[in-house]
Amino acid sequence: MDPAYEKLLRNFRWEVPEHFNFGEVIDHCAHDPERVALLWEDERGNRARLTFADIRDQSNRVANALAGVGIKRGDPILLVLPRITMWQAAYVGALKLGAMVIPCTSMLREKDLVYRANHSGAVAIIAAPGSAEGLQLVATDIDAARAELVDRGVEVSEVFHDAGGVFHHAGFFVCVGGG
Hints:
5-stranded mixed beta sheet; alpha/beta; single chain
C-alpha cells in the first residue's frame, strides 16, 4: 500500500457534530437564492428547476403543517410519493421537524403499505393522490387537518382519517399534490 495513503487512512477521523439535522444543510445552501438543487423532468416532458431556497421554503411549510396536525420529534412517518418535486420538500420538512422518515416506493401494494405502516409504528403517511385507492380509509371529519395543511401552503388533494382501523398507529393519510 502507498505510504501516503496509509498515513491518510491512519490519521482519518470523522468530524460528526453532536446535533445534526439535514434540513440545516438545505437552509445553509439556500443563502444563495440562485443555487440549483434539483432539475426534474417527468415522462411527459414536464420540467421543474428548484433552487435550495425553493426546497427550504417548501420544506418549512411541510414541517409547519406536520407540526400543526400533531406530528412531533421522533414520530415515524411514511413517505410514499412518486418521483415528483414534492418528495424532496416532504422529506426535508419531516427531517426539520425531527420526524423519522420511512421512504417507500409509490408502487407498494395495499398489503405492503399496511405492513410497513404498522411495523414501523408510523403516525402519518404522506402520499400522492390515488395512493388511498383500495385502502379501507374513510373520509370522516377531516376539515381541521386539511385546513391546517392548506393554511401552511401544502397543496392537499385528500386527507383521510383511518376510521376503518387499517393502520395501527397512523392517525391520518395525507395525499399531497404538486409536480
